[in-house]
Amino acid sequence: MDSFIKLAATTEWWISVVVVGILINFASGAIQALCPKAFSALGKKWQTRTAEKAKIRIGEIAQISASSQEIYFALLRLGALKSNALLDYLQSLVFLGFAFFSKDLFPSIHFTALFLAVLCLIQGIKDIITHGQYSLIVFEAQLLYRQRTRGANPRPTPGDAQVMGIRSQSNRD
Predict the structure, then answer these.
(1) How confident is the model at residue 85, as a pLDDT?
(2) H or E segment at 165?
(3) CA angle at 65 for the pair 59 and 69, rounded to the nearest 5°
(4) 38 lies in a domain?
(5) pLDDT digit string (tens) for 110-126?
(6) Is residue 161 part of a domain?
(7) Residue 86 in domain
(8) What is the C-alpha separation between 21 and 11, in angstroms, rounded?
(9) Cα–Cα distances in angstroms (integers) from residue 164 to residues 13, 112, 131, 160, in the given order
């Protein structure tokens, strides 16, 4: 502590503090000038990416809603996506169990199994997100197909209520 007090009392230390402060001020000014340009480029990329994804989504909805067979194939793909996610979670649990039981015998295998368990868990989360996005596309395609096949004023059926998650009045008792 005494050495710091002696250092702080010298003129050289105070001059170096002022010089470093000025350099930091110049650096922060340069960074402030560059930030709006960088963030505006990021915003433009985000807007173009969002517009492209919206066009792709509209195309997928139009393709799926073209016929009832396309809807059935989309529902099969939806089931495959969900089963892939569940299998990834199951595989993660298997690796986690293997890591737990191999901890004392094989430490290097323990780490590898933990790493694989985390990777499978992340893949399962990605698959669930993909399943959710695709299920919304399929749902919109089903609604569009039903509107097209029933005319301008579609009359809901009990099957529509099940798809939409709505219970009818008679089932609320």
Answers:
(1) 93
(2) none
(3) 125
(4) no
(5) 888 899 999 999 999 99
(6) no
(7) yes
(8) 15
(9) 72, 44, 17, 6
